[in-house]
Amino acid sequence: MTNKFKMPFAPFTGVNHHGHSILFGGALLENEKEETFEWLFEHFLKCMFDKYPKAIITDQDKAMGNAIRKVFPNTRHRFCSWHIRKHETEHLRSYVSRYSDFQETHGQWVNSDTVEQFEATWEDMRIKYELESNCWLSDMYNQRIHWAKPFLKDIFFAGMTTTGRSESINSFFDGFVNSRTMLNEFIVQYDKAVESRRAAEEDEDFKTMNSRPVFSSVHPIEAKAGQIYTIKMFDTFKKEWTGAITNLTHETITKTTEESTYRVGQLDVDNKYWCIVTFRSLNQVSITYMMTQLSIHDPLGPVTTKGRPKLASRIKSSLEAPKNEHALTVKDWVIMLLAVQKERHKQCMNNLEVIDAS
Q: What is the torsional sign of CA 122, 127, 128, 129?
């Protein structure tokens, strides 16, 4: 965001429970040096009563990255995927022209599901394409914890992978400020813009509390989601839910009186990417999914959930999951539930409860 004094505007943006952009704060900076970013983050922390952000998404600016490590040492720092793709076009052009299969292999590497798959594919690429240790791709490999999906599954990003919400902040201030706005006027107009967005959020809250969702099935999971999600989040859930329940199948791998193993997945996806689900007669299910171990058991009774969660983009049933449960989509949950449903009585499934995962 440009202004008359050529001072870069640094906004802290996020997403609310309606999927709308929200502004946590912002600052006009004199420059973009590391010490300036440190000052910015320290003051933001004070404004947030020393509550650290769990995750932050930025471009690959080194000064900003260094400041984040110093001020937000426990915050997960993710690189903007849009900026990475932009750099790929520039830095990988020579490899694409030299090797006919490079682009496909690179795509498989970037979209790896597990750490093991990511590391193995990288080693194959490094040798096959003679990647130099000082090339851009090697540098990206060294920074893999900031962008590669297998290393980011244990943190919730509310569906955000880019800095697009910050970079589109101009629309946030449409009608309030422009490039000729004076500094003293900017502060007043800034507050008015924030107040306008808060009023819009309250309107959406009112609509959610005074409306009923339209269901696509009679399944209790969808019904429970309709109770705890906002209208916007439920619409997102329903699209995934509908796609999941109409496009799932399974293959039996082994079956004995004590243990059964299935491969479960979507019809239009190669079965090598399906989940391996193991059912044991001790009333528990062990599921290995993208290197994540979960335990599923029959619920002992209903759990009453009052109101709707403020961050209405997470669901948890009676599944006992580790910290990285937010990496799973609605389709993933359905895949796991399908395996349980094959072995458990329908009544058990009707008792599955959904509670807030926060």
A: positive
Alpha-carbon distance of 128 to 126, in angstroms, equals 6
291: left (phi over 0), alpha (psi -120 to 50) or beta: left
- Among candidates 169, 150, 305, 340, which has minimal Cα distance to 227? 305
The answer to whether the Cα torsion of 317, 320, 325, 326 is positive or negative is positive
Q: What pLDDT does 319 receive? A: 35
Q: Alpha helix locations (H) across 210-329?
A: 220-228, 231-245
What's the pLDDT tens digit per position in 18-49? Answer: 988 888 888 888 899 999 999 999 999 999 99
Whether the CB-CB separation of 248 and 264 falls below 8 Å is answered with yes
Q: Would you state the pLDDT for residue 203? A: 92
Token representation of residue 172: 């946030």
Classify residue 55 as left (phi > 0), alpha (psi -120 to 50) or beta. beta
Strands (E), 30-84: 55-58, 76-79
pTM summary value: 0.67
Residue 5: pLDDT band by 50, 70, 90 thresholds? low
